[in-house]
């Protein structure tokens, strides 16, 4: 019988010789994960492990995209109340100060007393001030002097270079008065007021006066009281009925009335007018130091009181404003400091008698012009005391 033939199923297609099994082909179509070695490229750390990882199919979990867990919600904070920054506070304060100074300057400008004084002569280098203490005899006993007189005549000069100079001209200095015969320099004030005094001083000093400042005696007392008193020193006991000064040798805190008498006293002083000039400078210096101290400048009540008293006491040349007064105050403070040149013009005689005029102070005609030229040029040493009786 014919050999039995085993039933056969459908013929399987023949795969080409050398072709890889289907399942192997399927696996080779899976793309490797990023960072894993490609199939057929051995990893540096071991070929077997790399090939196994490369040909292992990924699970569905591995194929799914990785997602980062949502961050935990930040704790709720209570809204902060916004506070003004430091710069805003500073800006506000500056605005308030600027407005206050503007109002103060406007008020001060309206209170300035002006007087026609300047001569209109050609300018000379630097800044030159004439500071005058006028004696109207108000509220004081008459001592025999008729008409207004100047008990204080000071020339303050700030040169273009060199130290500031504050020079006192004795009130009895015998000088030429324009339009009049020679006389005591303070007589020019009686003859023609501030303009004639300015012209006379310019003839003596060869310096053009840029700002005239006249201080009434009653104003001195008001200013001293406005700053709460000043310390004054004098090494002699004094009981002077003309000035009403009662003084015990030494340094004392003086009120306005005492400071006024202190600055006027001369008959009980062996140095006469020279000694009085020195005390007047001491009073002016004490008031200026108190007025420009931080305790005064930062106290609006004291500052307003002092400014009011000062403006009532002062009369200044036409065209002088608050800024000019402030600059003059700073120059005066320099003139009262330790580096200032101080003194008097060179004096030949303290008792030069002139018929019809009386006893006068004779300035040295041989040294005067050179002296004022050195003042104008700032040629003296800082802190030097100059002039005086030769």
Overview of this protein structure:
The chain has helices at 22-28, 47-55, 60-63, 86-111, 187-205, 217-226, 256-264, 273-291, 294-297, 300-313, 322-335, 368-377, and strands at residues 114-115, 127-135, 149-158, 165-168, 174-175, 183-184, 211-216, 230-234, 238-240, 245-247, 250-254, 314-317, 341-354, 358-363, 385-389. Strand 13 (341-354) and strand 14 form a beta hairpin. Strands 1, 2, 3, 4, 7, 12, 13, 14 and 15 form a nine-stranded mixed sheet that branches. By secondary structure, the chain is α/β, with parallel strands linked by helices. It is built from twelve helices and 15 strands. The protein has one domain (114-389): 3-Layer(aba) Sandwich (Aminopeptidase), CATH 3.40.630.190. The chain is globular and about 115 Å long. Helix 6 runs antiparallel to helix 10 (300-313). The model is unreliable at 1-11, 19-32, 34-54 and 137-146 (pLDDT under 50).
